[in-house]
């Protein structure tokens, strides 16, 4: 049961991260209010790094910022390691 809830959480946070990158890109194009970079990183660090990375690639958003091109993949590695440890502890 706990693994299923964890999987659901990871799916939801990644969908949210993906949507946030798309929304921020759309806002940037229209000169509208943007999503703060700290919030994008927070959602990525909270488990949404895969969705963030896919969003960066699909929308070509934040791809010129070293903090994102290096930071998001590093967060993905951290998320994978911590997720594996968490699931392993449940089994």
From TrEMBL:
The chain's coiled-coil residues are none
Please verify whether the record's keywords include Transmembrane helix: yes
**GO MF annotations in UniProt:** nucleic acid binding
- Stretches that traverse the bilayer: 6-28, 40-59, 65-87
Claim: rRNA-binding is one of the keywords in the record? no
Task: Name the keywords, alphabetized.
Answer: Membrane, Transmembrane, Transmembrane helix
Indicate what this protein is called per its UniProt record: DUF1294 domain-containing protein
The organism encoding this protein is: Paenibacillus beijingensis
